[in-house]
Every structure is written in C-alpha cells, then in structure tokens.
C-alpha cells in the first residue's frame, strides 16, 4: 500500500476523472471542467461530449461546438433523433445564436421521454437565446417534476416561480412566495453555510427588472431560516432607504394619533381597526406594488424559532404573550406608585409648582404606566429570547459532538462528494494529508488531497471561492474500470 503521506503522480492523475465526475454531480461545472482538463487526452468521444457539455454550462458554447467538431459531430441529423451527442451539439449551437438548432432541440425534446438531462440542455439553450419563458418552464420541470435539487436548479426554480407569482390575489401570492423560499431549506450545504443560491436568484430577478420579487424572496428566506448576515445585507441593499424612512415616519405618526384617540373608548377601537385594515390593504410599501405590499405584511408573522429549528406561524407568534406581560405590569404599577405619588402631590403643595401640581403628577403617572407596560413587554421578550438562546447553544453543542463522531467514520462507500462544514471536519478528522500542502489542479487552482486510512481512497478538498467548501472522492482502489455512460449529465441524469 502506498504510504498515507504521499501519492504517486500516476495515482493522482487517475483520480482527476472521478473528481471531475463528483464535481459534476455536485453541479459545479467550472470545477468539473478544470479537473476534466487535467485528465489524459486520448481522443475519447465520450469525454469530448462531456467536456462540450461542461463548456456550454460555463458559458462557452462556441468552444463546445469546436470540441464536438473535432469528433466529427458537426451536423444535426434530419428529423428529431434523440442522440445525446447531437442534443449537446444542438444546445451549443443554439447558445451561439443558431435558431435552427434551437428549434431542432425543442422538437427533439418534445418527442423523447421526460428527462431532466434534456430539460437542463433546453433550459441553458433557452437562457442564451433570450427565451425566458421556455427556460423558466424547463427549470420548473427539473425541480418540480424530476426532483433534482442542486444550488443551481433551486436558484433558477426560484426565479421562475417568483416571476410567475400571483400579482392580483395576495393570498395566492403568499403561498407562492413561501413555497418558493422553502425550496432552499433542503439544500446541502444549508443556507447558513452557503447562501449564494438565494443571492444568485435575487440577482437574476433584478436583472429581469423584478427588484420587488428579489426583495420578497430574500426577506421570506431570512424569516424561514436562522440569521444569515449576507442575506440581511442583501435585503438592505434591495430596500429603498429614503422612501422606507418616510413610510416609517408616517406609520409612527399614525400610531401616535391612534393612541390619542384612547379616550373615545369603543369608537377609538373601531377607528383604529378600520384604519389598520385600510393601511394594510391600500397603502403600498415603497418599492412594492399593492399586492406585494400586502404579501410583505402578511409574512411578518413568519419567524424562525432557533430553539426548535422550525418556523413559527401566526398561531405560534409569542408577541401576544409579551403583550400580556406588559398588561400585567400596567395593572400592577398603580398599586406600586400610589403611595409615592400621593406623597409627591402633598410635597408640591408648599412649592412654587403648587398651581400645576395636578398636571405634573398626572403626567408622571401616565409616563410611569406607559414605561411599565413597555418594560413588561421588553422584559418578557428578553427572557424568552434568552431561554431560546440557551436551548440553541445546547442543541448546537450536541450537533457538533454528533458531527465529529460521524466525521470519524468512513464515507468512501456512501458518498462521492461532501459539502460544507462536514467536508472540512471529515478532512481533518478522518483523512490523512497527502503531501506537504496543496497540489496544482491546473488553471492556477490548488487543492488539498487526503487519503482514507481504511479504503486508501484519495479525496480532493477543492477551492470554491465564496461557495461552501467541497470534498470530492477519487477512484476506489482495486475497482474494475467501468465504461462511462455516454448519456451522463451530472445531477440531471
């Protein structure tokens, strides 16, 4: 067996194809292409088709056409014959502006059995030709019909779903927005580690001129997940500062006006209730139309509960209990301040303020009552959040202990890639480093290689920029060579 701290060049070279395949499974075409380009170029037709597809995915369709031309794949066959190399050729030609190839691709896709790999080619080609309707339909099908959930497919699905959200019925709009935001919750790694898919979806919506949709999506995702600073920063960027500031000042003025109506009793309650509904339904939020504004306000009840890891809906909102605590403080305060207020009133009798002592005492009482109610509300909220924070810390410590235990176990037989924090933990806890440091992967990219002490498999910890770290499994030792599937299309198989 090769020593755990080293690896022969031939062994490393033999792993690049498997590392590339794992990166393709992970839907990281840039990394997959970089790794594939390091494999021996033996004129394999299947490798060329795979490389052409990756070039198409990274936005180089002209290069993809050239690669296929080297394999004599140049002309589309007559009729709609569903051969994978020609489907890749049609998509690549369509992405370069060949509308005849695009029509051939759509006609062929309509005749074959529904397939996420073909839908993926249609989606990419449609995006390059500017046919956003077809691209959206393809991305919706990939996730909704075929269940392929990768960071790219979920982000594109979110763009398509938000673009088609109901613009007239706020109830339907709420369902659309929540369903779309919830699709991000099952990604691996989770958004807390890599929120880039949401940011990509927001950028794509803004590129289409739908800043309101981007803002709604980011806000809803933040309410369905733990605190994610990068998403909160993006939400602030999407919010018009001047208009929002004026809007809040008007809202505060109306609240003060409602408080001044308290002496009217039942009439005040009716006026406040009616005014609240008019405000919610008729007054738009800056940057949003009327339907999106009502949707925004309806979603305020959604709140992520860090202690349970779930989302609180309207019935689980704890602000009612906070208000009850404020009311209790308001009812108790008169009994506590009765004696001191009487003594203060008598003390002012012989002072220069005797003529306005009643007004002063009454104002002080009102101030103390309001302060007591606010203090009760804030104290209850602080106590509840402190309790939640302690529960969250205990759950996090337990999850960390469990992750460390799982990361010490071999995953070679189970996964061909790992992502996020678990990938880093697995590299440190289970794998033995190979070499003195990172190795050159080509294209100026360097990665760290680790060897599994149980199976002797080499894993690659590849750089991913701002995205979550990934760990890619290499060739399993002493395994028979298998012919690659010519229809292989990454996670969209």
Short description:
The protein has helices at 9-25, 29-36, 45-57, 61-70, 84-95, 99-111, 116-129, 132-144, 151-163, 170-182, 196-207, 211-224, 229-238, 241-260, 266-282, 290-298, 319-347, 357-407, 420-429; strands spanning 303-305, 310-312, 417-419, 432-433, 439-442, 445-451, 458-462, 470-473. Helices cover 60% and strands 6% of the residues.
Q: Tags for this entry?
A:
493 residues; alpha+beta; Serine Threonine Protein Phosphatase 5, Tetratricopeptide repeat; 4 domains; six-stranded antiparallel sheet; 8 strands; elongated
Describe this structure in words.
Helix content is 60%, strand content 6%. With 493 residues, the protein is an alpha+beta fold. It has four domains: 14-238, Serine Threonine Protein Phosphatase 5, Tetratricopeptide repeat; 242-286, no CATH class; 319-403; 417-492, no CATH class. Strands 3, 4, 5, 6, 7 and 8 form a six-stranded antiparallel sheet that branches. Strands 1-2 form a two-stranded antiparallel sheet. Helix 2 (29-36) runs antiparallel to helix 3, helix 3 runs parallel beside helix 5 and helix 11 packs antiparallel against helix 12 (211-224). The mean pLDDT is 82.
